[in-house]
Design a protein that fits this description.
Enoyl-CoA hydratase domain-containing protein 3, mitochondrial; hydro-lyase activity; alpha/beta; Mitochondrial_ECH-domain; Enoyl-CoA_hydra/iso
Length: 260
């Protein structure tokens, strides 16, 4: 059974997690499928934006707890198994931000633990307005330490710490207010809103978006002075591109750029 489907149209790749009976949990198979597809998309020049969504009642409920419990059967009580699991999950999350195409999470139902981490990791996110978000591992004795990495880079520290230590869930409206998602929309508008955002991005100069996404994450880890020096160099290189020259000339001439 295929648990992840890829569909391409109009320069947009849609990745659909399809394990509804496990709430699209990040099992070994799901992590491997996501990693393989993201790796393939990275070098696919025909793809300019990516939508990540899930089937069934949930976007993603986090790691597969039943699978994790089975990992305890080894002689080391699962130490090596768990280390490998969290390492592969971290690699997949970082791949989302390292590929040149913006990745948009289309979220519904619930996004919990590593599923909330997945939303926080995606470059953009739009949610059904009934969606709930949580890093609630503390409720079962497992502090969401790896999801915390993405969460604390998206929302206010105190809000994140409250979620992590109490298991509190956010509504979609609260998630939007805190910056975890871009916006919440009615369920019947979710697919169209997400697609429209992806189409807008896909209509921009791919080289400019690629340059900008990389620079966005690089400068965020720098001091202000370092960031200005770095992004100044990035803009110089961007300005020297022929297709950027064409885009600016077209704007001044009041015509559409010829980027084909």
């Amino acid at each position: 059974m295929t648990i992840l489907h890829r569909d391409d149209a109009d320069h947009i790749a849609t990745l659909t997690m399809d394990a509804p009976e496990r709430l699209n949990a990040l099992s070994h198979a799901m992590l491997a499928a996501l990693q393989a597809n993201l790796d393939a998309i990275k070098d696919d020049a025909s793809v300019r934006a990516v939508i990540l969504r899930g089937t069934g009642k949930a976007f993603c409920a986090g790691h597969d707890l039943k699978e994790m419990q089975s990992g305890r059967q080894s002689e080391d009580a699962g130490a090596a198994y768990f280390a490998d699991l969290f390492d592969r999950c971290a690699t997949m999350m970082q791949t989302i931000q390292s590929i040149p195409q913006p990745v948009i999470a289309q979220v519904h139902g619930i996004a919990t633990a590593a599923g909330c981490q997945l939303v926080a990791t995606c470059d953009l996110a739009i949610a059904d307005d009934t969606t709930r978000f949580g890093v609630n591992g503390v409720n079962i004795g497992l502090f969401c330490s790896t999801p915390m990495v993405a969460l604390t880079r998206n929302i206010h520290r105190k809000a994140a710490f409250e979620m992590l230590t109490t298991g509190k869930f956010l509504t979609a409206s609260e998630a939007a207010d805190l910056g975890l998602i871009n916006r919440a929309v009615p369920a019947d508008a979710l697919a169209d809103e997400t697609r429209a955002l992806a189409a807008t991005i896909a209509g921009k100069l791919p080289a400019a978006v690629k340059t900008g996404k990389s620079a966005f994450y690089e400068q965020a880890a720098m001091t202000t002075a370092e960031a200005y020096a770095y992004t100044g160099d990035v803009m110089v290189q961007n300005m020297l591109r022929d297709d950027t020259n064409e885009g600016i000339s077209a704007f001044l001439d009041k015509r559409k750029p010829n980027w084909d």
